[in-house]
Write a structure and sequence with these properties.
The chain is an alpha+beta fold and 99 residues long. The protein has a domain at 35-88. The chain contains 4 helices and 3 strands, in the order H-E-H-E-H-H-E. Strands 1-3-2 form a 3-stranded antiparallel β-sheet. The radius of gyration is 17 Å and the shape is globular. It starts with 9 loop residues before the first helix and ends in a 14-residue tail after the last strand.
């Protein structure tokens, strides 16, 4: 039969949805002038690596990240710090107090 598509498995559908959500959030942040995203994860480093995030040492966290509740108390020391630089396509960074 021509033009038929295989129905995705539940796992594939979840991955597709997660990817769409991450891409949507990243695009909104890039449009707002955000250039860097940092996150902590204990169990999903491989998933985020597939979306272009890279693991960095916790000692490389910028001061606002290192001072956050997530970094200091909510996430365990085992949580990996990950980073991604967003492509802003020439959009200047948003300045505090504007827009």
């Amino acid at each position: 039969m021509q033009g038929t598509l295989a129905k995705p498995t539940l796992d594939q559908a979840r991955r597709l949805l997660a990817t769409a959500i991450v891409q949507f959030i990243e695009q909104r942040l890039a449009n707002a002038g955000v250039r860097d995203i940092y996150l902590l994860t204990e169990s999903a480093a491989a998933v985020f690596a597939g979306w272009g995030y890279r693991t960095i040492g916790r000692n490389a966290a910028p001061p606002p990240i290192a001072a956050s509740r997530q970094f200091t108390t909510l996430c365990s020391e085992r949580a990996q710090l990950m980073h991604k630089t967003l492509a802003t396509h020439g959009i200047p960074p948003r300045r505090e107090g504007l827009g």
